């Protein structure tokens, strides 16, 4: 006899490189409405009371969905929060395409400033949604790799940052394009991740953006720094 899901189970937790997922995707309009109600209740709690107030019981109270019904679709509250992040990343993936289109004809330094400003803006938006979740799953919340076919960091760098550097080859003096592409694509994101954890009040400061642009230019024009 099958037991009804009425609480948390011993599901294996996802790795930091993988977002928590639903037990099953809603197929019918009724089940989609249920999941939508749960998601909106989760967002309302985070907006009004913060992540400390978030619990499956509170989501159930606010959404009007029974706790047992919630657990039929979500193994835990992180899986509910993950849906919010999926929606934000889908929106930001569309904006990223527009950012890349604007780079055409831009000087190198201006292009780097636009790229890094967008990364900071997205990281800030994700961080404010749920700080603990964002830090825990930061590796999975990578906008540049979101729903993309890149299996590794190397594939992502080779498909995105390296072509960008090649486009600006006439403005770059470094001979180490592959290393510079890695430092820009992975290293600067790691710096931003550290700022999120250690100095979150600096995230939206102009000094952070200025410093990241200077670091990027230092990678690409080391002779100018010397």
Automatic annotation (TrEMBL):
Record PROSITE patterns: HTH_TETR_2 (PS50977)
Stretches assigned to the HTH tetR-type domain: 32-92
A Pfam family it matches: TetR_N
InterPro entries the UniProt entry points to: Homeodomain-like_sf (IPR009057), HTH-type_TetR-like_transc_reg (IPR050109), HTH_TetR (IPR001647)
GO MF annotations in UniProt: DNA-binding transcription factor activity; transcription cis-regulatory region binding
DNA-binding stretch(es), residue numbering of this chain: 55-74
Signal peptide: none
Keywords, ordered alphabetically: DNA-binding
Cross-referenced Gene3D superfamilies: Tetracycline Repressor, domain 2
Region of interest called Disordered, as start-end residue ranges on this chain: 1-26
Protein name per the record: TetR/AcrR family transcriptional regulator
Organism: Pseudomonas alkylphenolica
């Amino acid at each position: 006899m099958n037991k009804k899901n009425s609480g948390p189970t011993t599901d294996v937790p996802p790795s930091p490189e993988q977002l928590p997922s639903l037990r099953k995707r809603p197929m019918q309009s009724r089940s989609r409405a249920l999941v939508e109600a749960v998601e909106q209740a989760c967002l309302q709690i985070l907006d009004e009371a913060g992540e400390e107030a978030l619990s499956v019981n509170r989501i159930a109270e606010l959404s009007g969905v029974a706790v047992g019904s919630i657990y039929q679709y979500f193994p835990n509250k992180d899986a509910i929060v993950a849906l919010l992040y999926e929606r934000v990343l889908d929106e930001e993936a569309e904006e990223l395409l527009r950012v890349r289109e604007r780079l055409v004809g831009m000087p190198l330094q201006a292009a780097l400033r636009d790229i890094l400003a967008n990364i900071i803006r997205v990281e800030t938006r994700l961080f404010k949604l749920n700080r603990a979740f964002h830090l825990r799953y930061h590796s999975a919340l990578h906008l540049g790799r979101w729903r993309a076919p890149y299996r590794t960091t190397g594939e992502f760098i080779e498909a995105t940052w390296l072509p960008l550097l090649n486009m600006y080859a006439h403005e770059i003096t470094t001979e180490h394009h592959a290393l510079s592409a890695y430092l820009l694509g992975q290293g600067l994101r790691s710096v931003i991740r550290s700022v999120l954890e250690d100095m979150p009040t600096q995230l939206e400061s102009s000094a952070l953006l200025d410093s990241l642009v200077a670091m990027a230019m230092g990678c690409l024009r080391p002779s100018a720094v010397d």
